[in-house]
Amino acid sequence: MTAPKRRKPAAFRVEDVDVFVPPEPPAAETLPTPMDAQTRMLPNLDRGLRWGSIFLAALGGLISLIASLWLYDWVLSLLARDDWIGWVAVGLLAVVVLALLMIIIREVAGLLRLGRLDKIRHEADSAARQNDKALAVDVTRRLKRFYAGRDDLAWSLQRLAEHEHDIMNAEELLRLDERTLIAPLDPVARGIVATSAKRVSVVTAVSPNALIDMMFVGAQNLRMLRKLATLYGARPGTLSLLKLARMVVTHIVLTGGIALGDDVIQQVIGHGLTARLSARLGEGVFNGALTTRIGIAAIDVCRPLPYIEQPRPRFRELVAEVAGIK
Predict the structure, then answer these.
(1) What's the whole-model pTM score?
(2) How many CA atoms lie within 13 A of 131 on its CB side?
């Protein structure tokens, strides 16, 4: 068995040696993922032109054009009469157009004020959490401008103007805002919710028709929302009231406070009394409790400041007040 030959030592330079460099692995974002594989397996769902949308847009434009031509011809025919009937009709048409314009302006103003209220509340919450003095000063300035001209808050605005420059902390400034401007409105809002809930409880307890109950509860809740929004400065129109209702429902769903059952009512007014209630009276108490929950959520949405110093309305206390339990 022959011994293996050994390589003779030799001199070499580093640059003369070919060093094997393994290729770099592909970047993570270029690696195929299971989702990419599923996407490649799906058929192309792009249907091209949306003929349904084109049809609706063309139909709407055609109806608008026909209505405009009819109105134009009708106005020309009235003017061609050259008598008092034609001029009265033209005057009534002008009143209709003016009233429609004012309604549009009112609705836009209501939506803008509701948006300003929501923006002030979010900025105040951010200023309180971050202790941002500049943002708190901006919130105070917005609140003063938002409530300017209200006779019921004239003294509060004057007191706020006297003391706002003496405070150096953001949270203390927001406490002053809440104490002077918002705290006087909170008891009124609580009274609005309690009154609406009592009215709903009484009417639904004596009403013989479920459809009437539903219509009354819906109308009463919308009326309560309008009163609360007006109290805190929103002054909503029809569109802004519907938007406010959507915001309240969203707030209730997010906070998980929509569940109202017999256990809640029993905890409030007692097991023995609940057992002796009639079916209609129990339904009235339940509807009143639901209205109370909606009212508390509406206060949270309409209130321009978070609860910093003032206590938040408690659901069980309000339900007990509605049920007459002291």
Answers:
(1) 0.69
(2) 3
